[in-house]
């Protein structure tokens, strides 16, 4: 497998900047997910790596080779598309073996490689069928097989599961993850689905308006978001984000806003400053005085419930096991452990950090 490096990669469409000075290093064997909302530039990045779209600036490196301007057919990369892109008139075996026939390999060698790949993807009993005779999940596995049979340096996957229903998407997601672990393949995977990113990636790359917001493990990106955008994009429901003011009260930092008074447990004497305070719904609990509000609605998620509460002028979500213990119209107090609070600069949107000793209790 191969290492992929993007050095200042950019792409403009007229006056629109789709990708802006992107630097990224994908190590050999990594499963890197490009995550972001529609229009953030993630598919554009993948198409530039694949050679399907020329960059406006920067370089694409495959190992130590500059492939920025190399034709797509000369790049040691295999792409799996959202639409499967199977040949409807060809059998599964011929669809999988198509890249090998294009290389003019011997029939016996092609047959052996196709059977090997089919065994890995559990397609052995389907080799003589046509795509129209397959389910969506089976078609996706055929598309994966056609990429896999090439034994490429890396796999590029552009939202390959978006056409599947939720149950099949979950099953195929597990299959792709298991395949990656078995092969040690280098994968760059595009999705807007947070569950896919969190469950499959070794690292997540969060993009917004063509710019890189954060790169890190799924745990790091979720637990320590570097920007307001990342905090608000990841999670269901997303992190609660409320404008507030950071005060020093008797030598200890406290965050205050309408109906909010949250001690941080940090010893410091600082001038007041505006902040955005964030806390994930699962890190809030019913009962306490840190936040005070009124329950507007309660959502039943099966094993969990989400209470949406009006706190001051802002709606705050609380997630917990069902029954959560409140009903619409209830006045509630909410508490949060200071270690689960996040502070962001309201102007730059960047995470605020500090170094201070905890207040002794």
What's the quick description here?
With about 350 residues, this protein is α+β, with helices and mostly antiparallel strands. The protein is built from 8 helices and 19 strands. Helix content is about 25%, strand content about 35%.
At the fold tier of CATH, the topology name of the largest domain is Rossmann fold
The name of the CATH architecture of the largest domain is 3-Layer(aba) Sandwich
Number of helices: 8
* Main sheet strand line-up: 6-7-8-3-9-10
Give an account of the 3D structure:
By secondary structure, the chain is α+β, with helices and mostly antiparallel strands. The protein has two domains: 224 residues, P-loop containing nucleotide triphosphate hydrolases (Rossmann fold), CATH 3.40.50; 105 residues, Nucleic acid-binding proteins (OB fold (Dihydrolipoamide Acetyltransferase, E2P), Beta Barrel). The chain is 23% helix and 37% strand. It has eight helices and 19 strands. The strands form four sheets. A six-stranded mixed β-sheet has the order 6-7-8-3-9-10, with helices on both faces. It has a five-stranded antiparallel β-sheet with strand order 13-12-11-14-19. A four-stranded antiparallel β-sheet has the order 2-1-4-5, covered by helices on one side. A hairpin with a 2-residue loop joins strand 11 and strand 12. Helix 2 crosses helix 3 and helix 2 packs parallel to helix 4. It is elongated and about 80 Å long. The protein starts with a strand and ends in a 17-residue tail after the last strand. The C terminus is likely disordered.
């Amino acid at each position: 497998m191969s290492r992929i490096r993007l050095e200042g990669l950019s792409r403009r469409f007229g006056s629109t900047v789709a990708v802006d000075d992107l630097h990224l290093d994908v190590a050999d064997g990594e499963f890197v997910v490009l995550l972001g909302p529609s229009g953030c530039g993630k598919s554009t990045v993948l198409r530039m790596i694949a050679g399907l779209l020329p960059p406006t600036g920067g370089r694409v490196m495959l190992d130590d080779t500059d492939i920025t301007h190399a034709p797509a057919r000369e790049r040691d990369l295999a792409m799996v598309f959202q639409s499967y892109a199977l040949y409807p008139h060809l059998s599964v075996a011929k669809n999988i073996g198509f890249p090998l026939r294009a290389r003019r390999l011997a029939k016996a060698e092609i047959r052996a490689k196709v059977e090997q790949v089919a065994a890995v993807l559990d397609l052995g009993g389907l080799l003589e069928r046509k795509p129209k005779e397959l389910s969506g999940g089976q078609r996706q596995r055929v598309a994966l097989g056609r990429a896999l049979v090439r034994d490429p340096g890396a796999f590029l996957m552009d939202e390959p599961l978006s056409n599947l229903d939720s149950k099949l998407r979950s099953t195929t997601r597990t299959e792709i993850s298991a395949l990656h672990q078995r092969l040690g393949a280098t994968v760059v995977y595009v999705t807007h689905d947070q569950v896919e990113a969190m469950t499959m990636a070794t690292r997540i790359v969060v993009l917004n308006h063509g710019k890189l917001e954060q790169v890190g493990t799924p745990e790091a990106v979720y637990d320590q978001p570097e920007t307001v955008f990342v905090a608000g994009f990841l999670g269901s429901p997303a992190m609660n984000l409320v404008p507030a003011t950071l005060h020093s009260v008797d030598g200890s930092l406290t965050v205050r806003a309408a109906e909010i008074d949250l001690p941080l447990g940090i010893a410091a004497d600082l001038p007041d400053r505006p902040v955005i305070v964030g806390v994930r719904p699962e890190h809030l609990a019913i009962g306490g005085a840190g936040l005070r509000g009124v329950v507007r609605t309660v959502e039943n998620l099966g094993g969990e419930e989400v209470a949406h509460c009006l706190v001051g002028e802002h709606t705050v979500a609380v997630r917990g096991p069902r029954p959560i213990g409140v009903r619409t119209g209830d006045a509630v107090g909410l508490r949060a452990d200071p270690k689960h609070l996040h502070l962001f600069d309201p102007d730059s949107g960047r995470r605020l950090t500090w170094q201070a000793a905890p207040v002794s209790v």
